[in-house]
User: Fold these one by one.
Assistant:
Number 1:
Amino acid sequence: MITHIQGGSAQDERGGIRFVNDFDMTPVRRFYVIKNLDTVLIRGWRGHRIEQRWFYALSGSFSVDLVKIDDWDLPSPDLEVQNVVLRSTDQQVLYISAGYATAIRALEQGSELLVHTDYPVSHASEDNYTYPVDYFINRIR
């Protein structure tokens, strides 16, 4: 399942805030920030059988390709690939349930992507599936 959790922003004489008040962080165990070297590099494919993730663009924008994995040992290369563009100006959290792999590319230099996950880093090696960036033939180029 892939869903968007909409946030917003507010401005006053003190400055501004961005928020996503409907993001229930109860299951979150850790977070990290991704900052790609440039706008050419594609970070992926990386999948998680049981880990959930939530993505939020802190700055700039990202293209996130998503594929629902059918077989973790040998997925079909022609699976449907969905694409979501996350922009910091959209103030939106992208939720990705367990069972998906992602390929992520920054669309603007200096973009930063905040990622929350529901498992500790000690579990990462047990639920980490990687595939070559050109593995899924339906990836939007």
Note: The chain has one domain: 2-130.
Number 2:
Amino acid sequence: MNSKYKVLKFSSKKFENIEDLVSIEEPLEISLKFKEQDKWITQNLSITMRTPGNDEDLIRGFLFNEQIVQSIKDIESVESYGDKVGQYNIQNKILATLNNSQNVNISKIKRDFLINSSCGVCGKSSLDALEIIKKNKTNSSEPKITKETVILSPKILQENQSEFSKTGGIHASGLFSSNGELVNLREDVGRHNALDKLIGNALINDQLNPKTQFITCSGRLNFELVQKVLMTDIGIMIGVGAPTSLAIDLANKFDITLIGFVKRDSFNIYTNNKKVIVD
């Protein structure tokens, strides 16, 4: 699924207003129904951010890959439920009923998902937990960065990655000053991990200054990445790849300038273009 968003695009030395197709990102609340000591229990398991469609396949693969069930046959049924919600009018809740509780790893469920889940929004156990506990918006007009700074930041990021040249398969997040100077960088095979490492290290070293800094990431931009940056009060986020619909909506709500598809001579500004010098 995808949706059209209005974009201010910079290309061939000029800006123009266009419409861009963006992959839809929506939360899926996963619940599990199983028997424990002859009593049926329905338990919220997790929330994952996904592109809607094939949700039944998603939960079956998730339960099997996580070894909550040993066999796909242990899953009696999978069904979406609840009201159709949001601008895309879809169901965002799904229930898997297990028919062979003796083979279900109940202890793993409680240990890994109900207690210790810690993957940002993914670890929350209800849709209500998606409400951002953040009252203030980012600065709507500062810092200011040039289009040249936008275009150069991914190149600087890659040139300073210690592992990318070795594997070509690792992500990075970089903290930059508004003049394009790299302040800090961290790498990880997971985009979320790289950003967590960057922010954690910048915090412990007292490097964050939202009035004069922005963050650039090596991959696409989704809700969880924007949410992490929002917590730092940094108001500009740049990604080499595409943003998702929910990332754009969140950035727009908090005045974050979200920039994607950065190439050698082009990029797209998806929200709040006041912080990019367009003259």
Note: Residues 115-131 have pLDDT under 50 and may be disordered.
